[in-house]
Amino acid sequence: TAPGQDLISARGTALLTPSLPYINDYFKCLEDQYDPYSNPRGHIPLCISENKLAIDTLASRLMQVNPFSDSIVYSYNNFLGLPSPREALAYFLTK
Hints:
Order of helices and strands: HHHH
Structural class: mainly alpha
Helix content: 25-40%
Shape: flat
Number of strands: 0
Distance between the termini: 51 Å
Largest sheet: none
């Protein structure tokens, strides 16, 4: 074992491991991004996407369903969660 490794539990060690197996490759792609003129041999990270191209098409159908009535749910948002469900939960927990 490495020096000091016995000072942290197996759970602690697991928490230090990236949760997304591709995250290191993603960061490498960001360091060498594709550009058709200046870096044609660069990388295009395909492991992370946000569907902004079809948002209008999706919105017209999904807005008919109450949980999807706010277009903020169609793209990445704050990792703490959307404001409206957080507020509803806070209201519920304070009762």
